[in-house]
Amino acid sequence: MQHKLFITIFTALFSLAFTASGQKLVNSPYSRFNIGSMEPAGSFRTQGMGGLSIALRDNTSIYFSNPASYSSFDTISFNFDFGIDYSKNILSDGVSHYKSDDANFDHLLMGFPIMKGWGFALGLVPLSNGYFKIAETISDPNTGIYSSYHAGEGGFNNFFMGSGIKINKNFSVGVNMSVLFGQIKRTNQFDFADYYNGFNNRTTENIHLTGINFTYGLQYTASLKNDHFFNAGISLIANKNYNSNYDYLSEKYTAFGTIDIMSYVADNTKKAYIPGTLSMGISFGKKNKFTTGIDYVTTKWSASVIPGASGYAADTKSFLFGAELIPDKFSNYSFMKRMEYRIGGHVGDNYFIDKKTGEQLKEYGASIGLGIPLRRTLSKTNLFFDFTRRTGPSGSILPKENYFTLGISLNIYDDYWFRKRKYD
Asked: Do the domain assignments include residue 15?
């Protein structure tokens, strides 16, 4: 009965996640380009540690960035993780500030063992967000006063399923199959104050991407003295040509409704090329006590081919690092000692580059997190807070973003899922 109720709740949440995914309404001008603003990958446990995950593995969490980690699931366990987050962006151009915020679905994950040393996981996670709104009124000596309006909506997501298996005492391998889907719609509009003597202009474009890709993972783990461990991992998201539908419409109109189509392009024959991502990481710690680690992530975004966004992407290299401490995981007297305390940071490149100036956007930030254990179980609530700054190089004219994210997730671990009960 309990399992039937859980499956019903999971199905409802999964349907809700498909409806809500990719629609975070946090305004960023950098969402105008490429496939939008990239979302951080990982559960809230990893995001509290700066986002590192490539060399992490344990029986109570799902580290989908490296599918080799699924081999660590217990033989009779079940993992479920559902998260929502709240984000606030403060945009500054050195003179004025603009704020926007929104709360939304982040991820839905499920994992379980097939047999000892062989696990399976699936989930729905966001890839990018394409929402933005920019409006201003401009006075030009040649054209007069006009208003400029730019907006975007939508985003891209990945539904994945994968498996990881332990091939010997130290090595595990895994693979995820992911289905990318979603679309972004962008509008650029110019309206003249002198609507009697001028034509207004509006362009709209839609980018729709679909396709199947694979992520390959490898992990090495070594047990050291006194319950210490050392892990190393590598993960590769393959480069991929995705099916794309792209349409572009440019039209002019007046305040009286006259419309003249100036240009229209509809193309579903060209492929959108998204390059592969290589991630490497190491971690060291003591079982049920502490974990530390660092990841290196790189993507050759300059080779990407994205309809309507040629030349705005640059190669990226990033470092993610963090730590987790559990004072006494099995304490019978202190709730605070059973809690998991996390801290981390990240520094590197954003894939947006200004074509006119050649300036590439940089990112750096810090995060903290908590794992709050639920009573008499290994399940927990994960909280994290992240501050990320996006800015150009010194002296850059690129707008600066201060991006704040607060997330909460429910991580359910049931080690009786596959046991047959005598009583229902």
From this structure: no
Range of the domain at 213: 23-414
Task: Dump pLDDT digits (tens) for 40-89.
Answer: 988 999 999 999 999 999 988 999 999 999 999 988 788 999 999 999 99
pLDDT band at residue 1, thresholds of 50, 70 and 90? Answer: very low
Whether 303 contacts 272, CB under 8 Å: no
Cα distance between residue 280 and residue 209, in whole Å:
28
Note whether residue 419 is domain-resident.
no
- Locate 400 and state its tokens: 């600066």
Query: What are the tens digits of pLDDT across the range 407-420?
Result: 999 998 876 554 55
User: What's phi and psi for 18, nearest 5 deg?
Assistant: -65, -35
Alpha-carbon distance 200 to 187, whole Å? 14
pTM of this structure: 0.90
In a domain, 330, yes or no: yes
Handedness of CA 62, 65, 67, 68 (dihedral sign): negative
199 lies in some domain: yes
Six-digit token string for 5? 């109720």
Asked whether the beta carbons of 218 and 171 are under 8 A apart, the reply is yes
**3-state class (DSSP) for residue 14:** helix
| Residue 376 in tokens | 């008499």
Residues 6+ away with beta carbon under 8 Å from 38: 127, 128, 350, 351
User: Whole-angstrom Cα distance, residue 408 to residue 384?
Assistant: 7
Indicate which CATH number applies to the domain containing 360: 2.40.160.60
Strands, E assignment, 314-379: 316-325, 340-353, 360-373
